[in-house]
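Practice problem 4.
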């Protein structure tokens, strides 16, 4: 059995750890609240954009856009989103596992035909461990989501697709559903699926808000073709916010679980300390009583 001093030192150590995890939980909670505010501020713009797009996709206009072109996949790009730091549960390891499964699906193409764009330090490290060379470093984006940087990344991917250097782009990220639920998602980014876009836009904008009274020049088809790059840029920014918000939610839950475990451990160690102390006192009393009877 451990000595009283050892148990007391361990209680003190666990209390110090509890203070750290409790503070980290509060910091993660504050950051989560801030990111949720950013998502709420972005929603009016996204809803209006989706409303316009859905209205025109519901017409009989023939849409011609290079971003919708389906072609045999000879070269693929994968954009994976993680955090820069750890202590957020299985958040980063889940992204790495999904990335590994995705690479397995494309291994017939050969490593030279798979381009990886890691957004976040942890997934960048995972890419290097898998033996791939990252197509740039986007760690700053993972810490501080920026529309400008998201727009630049989206522009790069669209340019590579238009010029035929890649035939398909996939995204791997966590979708923030609620504080207790972050859904790991694998999504096709390019070529864009207009039916899916219309479905998602309908869900976001709401059918009851639609207004079809538009006068369009030169045509609805041309407007949609010009609108698609904006939708694609908005998609990268939305995913970036989604991933960042999910990270803070995952870290808050992980730190809450760690704090709860620390509380339970302190209770168990305190009971052990009290029992050991009581036993030591009892033994001393027995020794005194035994000595007085001799």
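Answer key:
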């Amino acid at each position: 059995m451990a000595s009283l001093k050892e148990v007391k030192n361990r209680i003190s150590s666990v209390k110090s750890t509890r203070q750290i995890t409790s503070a980290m939980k509060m910091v993660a909670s504050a950051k989560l609240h801030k990111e949720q505010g950013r998502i709420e501020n972005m929603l009016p713009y996204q809803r209006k954009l989706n409303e316009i797009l859905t209205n025109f996709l519901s017409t009989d206009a023939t849409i011609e856009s290079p971003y919708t072109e389906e072609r045999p996949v000879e070269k693929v790009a994968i954009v994976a989103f993680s955090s820069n730091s750890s202590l957020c549960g299985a958040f980063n390891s889940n992204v790495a596992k999904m990335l590994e499964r995705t690479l397995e699906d494309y291994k017939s193409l050969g490593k030279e035909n798979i381009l990886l764009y890691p957004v976040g330090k942890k997934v960048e490290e995972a890419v290097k461990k898998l033996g791939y060379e990252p197509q740039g470093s986007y760690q700053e984006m993972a810490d501080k989501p920026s529309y400008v940087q998201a727009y630049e990344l989206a522009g790069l991917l669209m340019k590579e697709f238009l010029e035929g250097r890649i035939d398909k782009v996939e995204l791997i990220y966590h979708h923030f559903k609620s504080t207790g639920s972050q859904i790991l998602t694998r999504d096709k980014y390019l070529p864009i699926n207009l039916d899916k876009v219309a479905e998602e836009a309908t869900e976001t904008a709401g059918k009851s808000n639609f207004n079809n009274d538009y006068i369009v020049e030169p045509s609805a088809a041309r407007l949609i073709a010009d609108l698609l790059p904006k939708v694609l840029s908005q998609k990268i920014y939305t995913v970036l916010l989604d991933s960042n918000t999910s990270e803070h939610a995952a870290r808050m839950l992980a730190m809450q679980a760690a704090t709860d475990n620390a509380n339970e451990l302190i209770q168990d160690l305190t009971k052990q300390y009290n029992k050991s102390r009581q036993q030591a006192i009892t033994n001393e009393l027995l020794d005194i009583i035994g000595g007085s009877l001799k």
